[in-house]
Amino acid sequence: MKIKELLAALVGLAAAVGAIYYFYEFVTFSEETGGHSLGWKALGLAAIAFVCGLIYFLGHVNQEEEIHITQ
Prior knowledge:
The protein is built from 2 helices and no strands. By secondary structure, the chain is mainly alpha-helical. It has one domain (3-58). The chain is rod-shaped, with a radius of gyration of 18 Å. The model has no long low-confidence stretch (mean pLDDT 87).
């Protein structure tokens, strides 16, 4: 595994966990006049997680694995 893929996976997972946390805080926010910044944080972290997922999965495109056929 390349360092770029490892970094993208770690950052993407951390951003996904953060997005879930902030989305939960946004949904359960008790006051009617606030909480919008929590929604924006959740949306931003979800976008970061999505981009990191693209970097990770698109890094595997057009990479052929060698198949060794033994007799």
